[in-house]
Specification:
single chain; three-stranded mixed beta sheet; 3 helices; 3 strands; elongated
Length: 109
């Protein structure tokens, strides 16, 4: 994902395809997608952006034939950073990139 973009980066497709493959092989599970941003924009904007990223991730997976009732998405903005790169802290691009992510959690078996 790119800064200030909710569009999926082409490099994410192989990983998303692994989720699709797993869900295809395991029709008994449901997945929750949690999308996150770095802290470089405003808090409310980052929640909005992460919600859009989660929505696009869900859309991609359902476009591959996964039933929409089996996957949900939520945007967390910058509320669950993986490092100390909070508002006003100077960090490298790679440190910010660590916080821009989507996580997949099995929520039902």
């Amino acid at each position: 994902m790119i800064l200030n973009s909710s569009y999926l980066n082409k490099s994410a497709y192989p990983e998303l395809n692994k989720v699709v493959d797993y869900m295809s092989r395991r029709p008994d599970i449901k997945i929750a997608v949690g999308s996150h941003t770095d802290s470089r924009e405003g808090d409310q904007y980052n929640v909005w952006l992460s919600r859009r990223r989660a929505m696009r991730t869900v859309q991609y997976i359902t476009s591959k034939g996964i039933d929409p009732s089996r996957i949900s998405g939520k945007g967390y903005g910058e509320t669950q950073l993986l490092n100390e790169c909070t508002n006003g802290v100077k960090c490298s691009e790679s440190e910010h990139q660590l916080n821009r992510r989507s996580e997949f959690i099995v929520i039902e078996k």
